[in-house]
Amino acid sequence: MTSTAGKHLSTIVRVVLGLVFLYAGILKIADPVAFAGNIAAYRILPYFGNYLVAATLPWLEAICGLLLVIGWRARTAALITCILNGVFIVALASTILRGLDIDCGCFQQGGDKTSAWSAMGRDIVLIAMALTLLRKDRQRSP
Amino acid sequence: MHQSTIRLLREMAGICLVAVAIGLVWNHQLLYNAWTGNAPSTAPVAASAPPDQSGQAQQAVPVPLPLGLMQVKEFHDRKEAVIVDARDETAFAAGHITGAVSFPLGEADGRLADFAKRYPPTTLLVVYCNGYACHDSHDLANKLLAAGYPTVFVFEGGFPEWQAAGYPVMEGNQ
Fold first, then answer.
1. For a designed S-S bond to B129, which of A28, A89, B137, B166 qualifies (C-beta 3.0 to 4.6 A apart)?
2. Is residue A142 part of a domain?
3. pLDDT per residue over B119-133, tens digit each?
4. Quick check: is B132 in a domain?
5. What range does the domain containing B159 cover?
């Protein structure tokens, strides 16, 4: 019973995490120029770097999200999302340290502003979800 | 254990490569424009050619990045950027973003040298005009990029969006 409940919970966590990344990726794919503008506001990358990341990162998010939703190579996708969220947290922390009060650009480009602190909190929750999946998967492995 | 780690890393690399490849192919035109605009060898050509008359000169100019209302407000409040009004002086006098500098697109070529004396190339610029249907801000931003300002944003919502948000505006030529 406990094992069945745990399996269901793991599936829910996997699908929810996947949908979050799929949603985030699709919104950015739809408007890469606006996403490049949001990346530029972080003032970390050079001019072309903003466009390069805006062109490729959303696809990585969307593919990882899709893999998590369908459950194929889910462990690998969970690990990538974990690393991505770690990178996002570092970038957001740098904006706080530099006194930049910008929109995180996490989902809807040009939508309501999300502060760096809120975005970091959300990223920590997503990392916890990904780690839960990795831990479950490891326990199942011989 | 070792085998599974290698397999995991290989799968991660595979997923990343596929994502990057799709992203590059999907956005190849955008990346090409950004790349050619940023190429240092094309900058002198772009600076000397009239951007409105030559499609090739337009391609050589870096693409100005769009900026949302909230970010413009942040720059404005912190005085981190010079807000540039690309509309004509009559429109500027009727109402503009408080603290904005009037730099009408129609007089840009004549005023560029004076502008460059007042604001060094390191200045962060945000250009606006009359909202999404107005292209003067984009054209002026292209001229400023070609003139050697590396960081030029376009506030596409422009004065109408700023005013509708209830943010500070003023009248007159100051």
1. B137
2. no
3. 998 899 999 988 766
4. yes
5. 64-170
